[in-house]
Amino acid sequence: MALPTATRAYTFSVNNRISYVSLNDTVARYLYGIKNFLVATMAYTVKYTCDGTTGPTSGSDHTDRWASQANVTTRGANSTTAQSFCVLTDANGVDILLAYQGATDDVFRVAFSASGAYTPAGTANQQPTATDEATCCATTTMIATSTSADRVWHIMAATDSKSFRVFIARSNVVVGCAFGIETVVSAMVSPAVFSPPVVGHSLNSLLPIIYLAAGAQTTHSVVAHPIISSVGFNTIGGFAAETYATTMLDGVNCELQGSHGSLVSPLSAFSTTTSAQGKIGNLIDYYKSGNSKSDGDTSTDKLWIHLTGSASAAAGILWPWDGTTVPAMA
Fold first, then answer.
1. pLDDT for 261-303, tens place per residue?
2. pTM to 2 decimals?
3. Same domain, yes or no, for 23 and 72?
4. Number of domains comprising the chain
5. Are residues 22 and 128 in the same domain?
6. Is 263 exposed, middle or buried (0-12, 13-18, 19+ CB in 10 A)?
7. Shortest CA distance to 151 belongs to which of 21, 35, 310?
């Protein structure tokens, strides 16, 4: 099957190596790298930051206290403990929270406020809050728990600065959670208010990434902001292959699709919330079933990368790639 054509343009920063020192150092360098790329390269705006000790003194204090990874080393066990955090605002006016928060050093929290509603906490070095917050990742490992081996991370952002996605690899496997916060094409008729049409997603790469075909569960979770106060949703049933159960052909070389040997299907987001059930929108992503690929395999033209969360798996997703670079995955 012919590969799809990317429907939006991206700017890439790939093969960013973190030489392993500790889990804390790895998370600090990863979070700082994400923030630095989104701000310095993609012109996301710094709304609030905290270096673990000093945070925003008011809602109008937009000082950037993340000058280096050294300012990102303070982990708080929960939202009401001191922690390193930043809130960035994209070109859609969406606030993105990156907070070094979790029970162990390999965990951090990713969330967003579609209305840009984050405000500082009463104690400045604690996590900011937003009434419409939707959480992408909060309690699972983001870099793998293994206390050895380098990590290599890769990030891409849409050139309109309204969407980004990022993943990290260790020993040739995507580890932790790949995640992103990005616009989708709304599929809703009622309620008509889904503005901006933004979702956040996280890929639990400890399992095969994506299944919601023929009623199977998915490990690719998606969240969306509330639509309106009376009818809204904060969680979504997951990604799904649009029209058919492709799992029957996972691991199979699909001869009808030629030398590529894979079925490639667009993905969608769905809501299972009572009074707000149905299809939310079409994502700018693709599900791949068919012949097996490994994490980090690219198409011949290097315009697509295959991610599964395993060294060799049949199904997975396709994300755009830069057309030039061989991905470093270890």
1. 666 767 777 676 677 777 777 778 666 665 567 889 888 899 9
2. 0.88
3. yes
4. 2
5. yes
6. buried
7. 21
